[in-house]
Request: fold
Amino acid sequence: MKNIAIFASGSGSNFEAVATAAISGKINAKVSLLVCDKPEAMVILRAKRLGVPVFVCNSKDFANRAAHEGHILAALKDAGVEFIVLAGYMRIIGKTLLGAYSGKIINIHPSMLPDFPGMDAINAAFSSGASYTGVTVHYIDEGVDTGPIISQRRVEILPDDTLETLEEKVHKVEHELYVNVLVDLFKEAHNENL
Reply:
């Protein structure tokens, strides 16, 4: 069973989907830590409700990214974290964490990368007049939403969609796709250890 940390900054619906699937045994992983950079984020309440330990680390309390990530890295090591799952974490991961967890950090992004990378991707797709967008799960690298793609699922943008209905459709796909990817990823890791 993998020891994982989930990084999140906001409401935490993807955090909850992954954590619930891990707690139920669907994902062969234990969520050992929620790492959050926003002390007031809703995801903290979700984590406490699910019994997941919370580590809040506000970047404003540190001189630079390396110091901030060094503090996070110490907490990850203390918790025995082997793999990082980004779930709406609104900070770019830097060299400190990338170096320590090379090939062991994945992210979910609300578009069909390479289309609409970066912030506000659902709104960007909706405003562009595109006929579809989607969800991408990918490994992270030094770039912004540029790492190797693990899985993608398309979401149609219908003529009667509003930004709100599109967001709902994308989030529903995110929750399903992320859990499915993690089930497969950690099943493979489990099989390799047999």
